[in-house]
Amino acid sequence: MKEINQYIFYLSIFLIFGCTSNFKKDSIESKNQKRFKLLSSKHTGVLFNNKLSLDEQSEYFNYQYAINGGGLSAGDLNNDGLVDLFFISNSRSNKLYINKGNLQFEDVTMSSGLTQDEGLWSVGSTMADINNDGFLDIYVCMAGGEKVKSRSNLLYINNGDMTFTESAKKFGVNDSGHSTQAVFFDYDLDYDLDLMVINHSGNWNERRPFKELDKRGIYSDKIYINEGGKFRDVSEKVGLENDRYGFGLGVSIGDLNDDMFPDIYIANDYFGSDYLYFNNQDGTFTEKIKKSTKHISLFSMGTDIADYNNDGLLDIVTVDMVAEDNYRQKTNMAGMNPKIFYEAVDAGLHYQYMYNTLQKNNGNGTFSDVAQIAGMPNTDWSWAPLFADFDSDGWKDLFITNGFARDLRDKDANIKLLKEGKIVKKNGNTLYKISNLDHYLSFPEKKIPNYAYRNKGDMTFEKVSYDWGLSQLGFSNGAVYSDLDNDGDQDIIINNLNDIAWIYENTSNQQDKFNFLQINVIGPESNIFSLGARVTVKTKDNNTQTQEITLTRGYQSSVDPILTFGLGSNESVEELIVQWPYGKKIILNNIKSNQRIVCDIKDADDFSLNTQSEFIFNDVTSDLQVNYKHIENDFNDFEKEVLLPHKNSQHGPGIAVGDINNDGLDDFYVGGAKNQQGSFFIQKNNGKFYEKKLNLFKNDRYCEDMGALLFDSDNDGDLDLYVVSGGNEFEKDSPLLQDRLYFNDGNGNFTKSTKSLPIMLFSGKEVSSADFDNDGDLDLFVGGRIIPGMYPFSPRSYLLINNGSGLFTDATMKYAPDLYEPGLVTDSEWVDFNSDGNLDLIVVGEWMSILMLENQKGKLINVSKKYNLDKHKGWWNSIASGDFDKDGDKDFILGNNGLNYKYKASISQPFHVYAHDFDNSGTIDIVLGYFNQGTLYPVRGRQCSSEQCPIIKEQFSSYSSFGSADLREVYGDKLDDALHYQVTNFATSYLENKSDSGFVISNLPQEAQLSSVNGIIVEDFDNDGNLDLIMSGNLHVSEVETPRNDASVGLVFKGNGSGSFTFLNTKKSGYYTPGDVKDLKILKNQIKKYILVANNDDKIQLYQF
What we know:
Distance between the termini: 57 Å
Low-confidence stretches: 1-30, 208-213
Radius of gyration: 31 Å
Mean pLDDT: 94
Helix content: 10-25%
Number of strands: 77
């Protein structure tokens, strides 16, 4: 207790004397000055270099983490108010530098007793006060190849006099399992710190998912419980996974579900899925990575947890190793093998892609990857991601270290070694006829810059590496942020491989509009630094920031426990809330900026968590006895169409709603996949449903039901059923593609008509009805989705004219020739968009513009160009209308692919598709083109492209030559002869009807852009007189080199009556539709309303509101 009081005394001296002068703001003299200034080692005195000899580096071929670099830790080790630095050296002595002020440091490694013996291999470090004396201690993780003397982790106890005593064995934490990093946290909330250690196997042949390790061992991840200062391994008891494929490289702690208990995220390398352990509040954990996320990184490196979008929920970032530029992508990125990909998924692993992930917290224990829309999905061979407000504007920015000592994945170098016989592959084994050193030197060395991203406050980041002065080239690994000079901004310190450590001074305090608040949170005696406490800061600009105290962050490193909040132009904080996980809280108001304050748990009041209020939407699927699962047939679209961007065989099921038995209650039809019959669900008086299976549907089960419509085709007062046949698994003229019309006898009994429709052997998706010719009966538009096996050629679409008794005639060329082959149609809407009293038609689709067909005296005339909508070509999936701005005309919501996908597009830089027989093989080849740094390149790499066009391998003998070639250099003048479509807009959009002035298109809010929108409901769900939106979607069947479009969990937007919308997250709305949703419909009974959700290859859902 004496030592803790001494710590607080030193802190109070710092608060009185240490803040005033250092927190003074100076103006920057030159506008060209970068935000960060790289300090010379001469000035700082930090000469640390994590140097490895070439022989040590080439040990990679025996120990594949030999060049993964080292970490560092920041913390005030002597309680003098200045943050000190501890650097990890892999094969030489670690170094401790004491902060002397003015960004100058002194090497005290020898005098402190931290000099490390040779023959060891240090990796990561973290700090915590293990023995409750008020001084930070140091924990070092050890690993290494067969030659190391010991892999036992080290614990250096701070003696309080700037000397340390190694005590790992004494405390029971001398883990020897190839440790990468550790984190201290109070997982059982018993007021003391427990320990998590992540390890990895030393057997590199166990990386693949097919060699399951079903027993825990020395190389498994560990949790050690603190029992009065002695630690005990309780890993199995608390529920840690058997490390079947775990190669842990990063670990983060945070309360991810707002229950005050700390949860764990572990980033695993290679094929091993990451682990997400939720705390069960009883001393155990449950692993839920597959339940809580839709996909993850493949080679996960470092990780961090923070609230990046200021919604009060903690998000997760992991980094991988895909390059940003086209050349390095094409020459270094390993091609994703579809067979291996799906074998891994079938073996129980997750959907894993070689991209960074930014898992946005949905507020219900689930996460959506938003890295693509955030703008940081590929940052090359990345290690340490760190969230911190580096520009002090109130939003957390992102810094990522980058670099690998050799491009060991360089494809040309590997091929050269094979050709020279230095590497031989035989019977599934690899034989090396070359020394490790020569093998290592065969690969190129390329230093690359680190990445800095400024948070724009709208869920996106702007790359500012160069603008902020952080673009030096190197091989950077561990990194931390800390206010080294006590000026209120976060400096950056980096541990480089084979280079002097970099210390960047942050000069934000010299900028205009610079304000901050620093908080030192003091906890109970056994957790004095308050690990696990959460701090929330609210400012008058309606910005709310949240931080949680955890020290291990990024990669192999740890930060100091002082929290820094950037305040931008705010000169005060309206409200500060500190919550300890022990049921204690402090609330302070009207706090002046530019100071460091202390919040002590001794001054806190008791509190309890608020209970969840009622949801707006409630899942009543089971209550209403609806139990139908769409079961998709197994078909590999890519076998014949190698470079398809996504599968075309999984666009169903279609659904239709209506009262089929005239009892005043809505019933519904749900279509089946191939080999699955569709079914009716009939509503009973009590609101529940029963399934009605009809034999005639059984006879049609070999068709795929892509769309459906209930309408009165024959004017007899009851609803008949139209079913659109489609899919990609049929031949293009297969009779199973014929649409079907079933007549209703008025009591819900149906008969299939064989003469009512013309022969329509096309693969469709959409059908909609309207009396467009004003003759008293309902006519049909039927949209073609694809020609099987011939993507992206346009199929037929149809305008079918009704004779009044349900006999339909193809009148497309007579009344609407633009509908004959309009494109890959997904949706349509009959609506009077020009307010002339006649029903017009809007048609949308994939690679299509917004097709506006004006009804001019019974003919549908294309007026898209007139309204300037022909330029907006997208992957439009859905359309819905409503008077959202209350001006008396119809506006539109257009569901698109979203902005959170690998493919990007704009009018100036469209996304392209070409289709042609480029190699004269007699088959159609698909070529996708994308812009990278201003040049149009093929999307797919040399290997995949050669599988479609073998001639490419002959024309481009190396990956380097292919990676340097633009699209025209690869495919030549045949591009001019190819079918060619473009996308200029992937955003889900609001199309405002300006009456005589035409239409204005704008993006819906960012939350609407997180994935495909396939279904839209327009409804005033809160009865305030304004139309609201309910939307769902996703696209789960992307080709395996493109992460699935799966971030949508359902969207609810509240309209304000003037054309603007406010997003309600899942935590508030209760609407949760995470599946591959293909359509939505409104369903009613006498009292309530429901949303019917059609999921591909999953169960139907019903939400009541």
